[in-house]
Amino acid sequence: MMIGGGCLCGSVRFRGEAEPRFQVKCYCNDCRKTSAAGHAAMMGFARHAIAISGEVKEFQSKADSGSDVFRAFCPTCGAGVFARNASMPEMIFVRASTLDDLSLFNPQLVVYAARAPAWDPVNAGIPSFPESPPRG
Ligand SMILES: [Zn+2]
Ligand SMILES: [Zn+2]
Asked: Domains (ranges, CATH) in the chain?
């Protein structure tokens, strides 16, 4: 698929042609805090397939897995645009909230579903895990 998107003010943009390797809604504390919603909707792509323009700032934190996560946001408007995970350097995780065409996101998995607030319910009908999915 062709994807494109960017932050609220438009100074950070991304585009590329790639198929998402996974599409996930995450209700973990860090995703919730940085998304300004109950969850973050993320699409994982091969890093090399996505071109980014504009300056971002990154906030680094430890995921439950122990790996370092870098959440990139626009320093002007504050919108979170994408994230990187040090344990998966070949991947980029685009926030579906920043897509130009929101219909491209098709969630296939929900993680940390046990942390979903009542006002942001977990989708019925797609696999969900109460915490992180099992590895392997
Ligand atoms: Zn911006
Ligand atoms: Zn998360």
From this structure: 2-115 (2.170.150.70)
